[in-house]
Amino acid sequence: MGRIHVLSENVANKIAAGEVVERPASVVKELLENSLDAGSTRVRINVEAGGKKLIQITDNGCGMVRDDALLAFERHATSKIKSAEDLLSVATLGFRGEALPSIASVSRLRLETRAPDEASGTIVEINGGKLFNVEEAGLPAGTSITVRDLFFNTPARKKFLKAESTELSHIASLVTHYALAHPDKHFELHSATNAVLVAPPVAGSSERVYQVFGKDVLDQLIPLAAVQPFEHVGLPQPPPWKRKEDEEDIAAREPGEIRVHGFVSKPEIQKLNRNSIYVFVNGRLIRDRLIQHALTEAYRNILPPTVFPVVLLFLELPSGEVDVNVHPSKTEVRFRQQSIMHDFVRDAVRAALMKARPVPQFTTEITAHATASPSLTPGPRATVAVMPQHRYQPAPHPFSLNAPVPPLQTERFHFSDSFAVEGNAAVSLARAPVTVPADRCTPPAEAEPEPSSDLAPSLASLKPLGQIRDSFILAVNPEGLWIIDQHVAHERVLFERVLKQRAAQKCESQRLLMPLVLELTPAQQALFAEISDELNKNGFEAEPFGTRSIAIKVAPAGIDASQLEHMLHELLEQLAQEDQALNMEKVRARIAASIACHAAIKVNMPLEQNKMEWLLAELAKTECPMSCPHGRPVVLRYSMKDIQKAFKRI
Ligand code: ADP
Ligand code: MG
Q: From the alpha carbon of 101, which atom of ligand 1 is closest?
């Protein structure tokens, strides 16, 4: 007897659910897209327990007649396309006919719907994919879908849902961004009794940004709008002998145009990840490498390569110019004229940035004391380093920024006993090839025996005055006026701390409440295996989870669990880009830089006076206070001379 059989509908739906329904936010996304496809102008969403217990979405769209209400739960049942050709120009958000059966197979679902011209509506109830009630009822026009107990029958998936607050924040961000894409519609999101978002219709995108994010955010964004005609239609033409008589000639069709509108952030806004980049293509929220690349290009030399802007882009193009059928959750698309799209986005964003670029007021960027400057440019000279002697007695720390620093750790900062070990660590780090960011800080020993001794006393005498936009510390000393980037300053402090703790084998770690499961590609798995020992020594504890994944159970202290996944992926991505064989010193520096980056205080964070003082004092004690582990400057100085010159006193 043969061994192959066709899976039952229910099993097939659960498999599809695995692709479409990853978490509560993906349910919200599918249902919200359905409501928008149904022409709704008003959508209200209620959730409980981050959507794990309840997701309810009510719209005033076209509703469904009884037969459709039942058919909607059949696999591949859709009203949005009819033939394979329709796939070439999908104008709706949905088209796969998979969402409803998938969601219904992993939850307890209730559908209430009425088409406006029908006298009565239909209620359908499905439990874990099994239909158990259909009835006629008097209902308002439109559709309401209630999804309870998501994943109740797939406990393995349920277990790996994140905290309620995390799931809710994903839902909130999703709804917010759909609200931004459709300013003319009314959106509401409620979590239990809490109104998370209430956005009545407004005139346009700017009004919407103002409505949902407030004036401050709107002020930090640059609006952009551009349009460009396509030169030709991107769809491939069938050869003439294959063309039917009456078939429309694609080449003769109007090629149409690409439009973009939206917002990009000013250069002073720097995000540590891509989470604030939202790109919509024909109203569909997507993640797309091509567009990401175009954005990176647009911000080249405006933002350092390791940080990201805030971007909200709404691209519109003829539906034939974009293939939406490339990913089950429809979050990826393929443009038929890729390079045109890429260059269009790059140029539109670049033009907007150039137009709005503020005149730099600060011309003197501190790189280092003149004699030490050669060491700051990475180059062949920066090969050997000697651990500099610390001349300054660190002040006792009355407190720390995030978590209290245990006294023992403070002791270690006094670099007395463990000094030799730390010294070795620094030396070996400096021998790594120039791509190691810390190289910038380690000058050649012959030329400069006490490299960082010049800036430190200046920093140690700084008096903080306050913050600019809760992001940059303004400080003075007799040398002049200083601006310190609080994030990179803390990053530098933590980077050196992590390296020291690692060298002393005393990394602090924390057990995660829920293990973080990371899916890795085979290439990433191989990389991970190579660095896992080093990760362990930095306070991670991970074990294989299934064939493709690993579960992180313990992580370095100070990193928010929500940042971990990104941090590890970023690390693997960076290491994968190395073209030389992995060098453990380099790996160690990368890990330390990555931990520091994710644990450091962020911009837009108010700091009290004593915290600013603490940060400056800590910075003064670092080996390399002038640049962050990624090479960005930490401090800017407006010297007394510059000030006097500007006031025409000299
Ligand atoms: P798709 O959106 O890919 O067509 P779904 O499984 O999400 O597939 O939905 C199946 C069908 O159910 C849709 O094609 C649509 O006709 C109908 N439908 C779903 N949600 C709604 C709604 N909120 N209002 C009206 N019709 C809906
Ligand atoms: Mg759908």
A: 6
